[in-house]
Design goal:
This protein is α/β, with parallel strands linked by helices. Helices cover 48% and strands 16% of the residues. It has helices spanning 2-11, 16-23, 27-35, 42-51, 56-67, 79-95, 114-123, 128-140, 143-146, 169-182, 233-244; strands at 73-76, 98-103, 152-158, 188-193, 207-212, 215-221, 226-229. A 7-stranded mixed sheet has the order 1-7-6-5-2-3-4, with helices on one face. The longest helix is centred in the middle third of the chain and has 17 residues, at 79-95. The radius of gyration is 20 Å and the shape is elongated. It starts with a helix and ends in a 5-residue tail after the last helix.
Length: 249
C-alpha cells in the first residue's frame, strides 16, 4: 500500500513535502506511510487518492489494501490483488538482507534462466503475447541477489528439480550451468535436498522467506493465488531451526 501511495504521488510530480502541505499533514507521517512503518486509516488513504484525482478501479484497489493492511496474512486470489502482491514481493526482495528460497520441484525462481522461465510459462498456459514481458519481469527480480549490494541467498533445491526436463534437455543443461556459475558468488549458497531426506517443509510447496529492515515475511505462491505470512517470533524461530538442519551446501 505504501508503494502504491508513493507511485501515485510521484506520477503527479509532487515531492513528499509538497504533498504533505496539500493534505495538511506532517511530511514525516506521510513518509512512514510510504515506507510501511505506519499504517494509515482507510479514510486517510481515500483523502490522499482523492487529492490526486485518482478514482475508479485504481482507487478501489488501493483503498482495499488499506482495509487489510493490519491483517497478519495477505491472500491474493484476484488479478488486481495478484498484481499488487507481486509489486510488494519485488519491493521486499530489493530491500532484503537475506532471502531463503525453498523449491522442491523446480529451479528457484530467482535463479532461473530466460529459456527455463519461458518453458515454464508456456507449459503453464501463459499467452504468447505476455511471455516476453513476464520473462523480463522474472529476470529483473534476479537483481536482488546478483546486482549491486545483493542480498544473501540460500536456495534449497529438491533433487528432483535437477532432473526434471522443462523445455528440453538443452534448456536444462544451460540452467544447471547457470546454477554452477552463481554458486561461486560469495552471497549465494545452494543446497540440494536429497530425495531420501524424508519429510521437510518444502514438500508442502515452494516458499520464500525474506528478511529485511521491515522484519521477516514468508511468501507462498501457486498458479491461482499468492499468500504472504507474517510469522511471529516463535514461528519464525521454528522456521529457522528447521532450515538450519537441512543438507549442507
Amino acid at each position: 500500500m505504501g508503494k502504491a501511495l508513493r507511485q501515485a504521488r510521484e506520477e503527479h510530480g509532487l515531492t513528499l513535502r509538497a504533498f504533505a502541505k496539500r493534505l495538511e499533514r506532517d511530511p514525516g507521517v506521510l513518509s512512514r506511510w510510504e515506507t510501511g512503518d505506519r499504517t494509515p486509516r482507510p479514510e486517510q488513504v481515500a483523502q490522499a487518492l482523492t487529492s490526486l484525482g485518482i478514482n475508479g478501479e485504481r482507487y478501489e484497489e488501493v483503498v482495499a489494501l488499506a482495509h487489510g493492511a493490519d491483517d497478519p496474512n495477505w491472500v491474493a486470489t484476484t488479478l488486481p490483488a495478484q498484481r499488487q502482491q507481486l509489486e510488494a514481493l519485488i519491493d521486499l526482495e530489493r530491500r532484503a538482507t537475506k532471502i531463503i528460497e525453498v523449491s522442491p520441484l523446480m529451479i528457484p525462481g530467482l535463479l532461473q534462466t530466460s529459456d527455463y522461465i519461458g518453458a515454464v510459462m508456456k507449459g503453464g498456459g501463459v499467452p504468447e503475447s505476455e511471455l516476453a514481458a513476464r520473462t523480463s519481469r522474472r529476470i529483473s527480480r534476479r537483481e536482488s541477489v546478483i546486482g549491486h549490494q545483493p542480498a544473501e541467498l540460500v536456495a534449497f533445491i529438491g533433487e528432483a528439480a535437477l532432473h526434471q526436463v522443462i523445455g528440453d534437455r538443452s534448456v536444462l543443461r544451460a540452467q544447471l550451468r547457470f546454477l554452477d556459475q552463481v554458486a561461486a558468488k560469495p552471497n549465494i549458497e545452494l543446497r540440494v535436498v536429497p530425495l531420501a531426506s524424508g519429510w521437510h517443509p518444502g514438500l508442502e510447496g515452494l516458499f520464500l522467506l525474506i528478511r529485511s529492515e521491515l522484519g521477516e515475511v514468508v511468501h507462498l505462491e501457486n498458479r491461482k493465488s499468492g499468500l504472504f505470512l507474517w510469522p511471529d517470533s516463535t514461528s519464525s524461530g521454528s522456521w529457522a531451526a528447521t532450515l538450519s538442519s537441512w543438507p549442507a551446501p
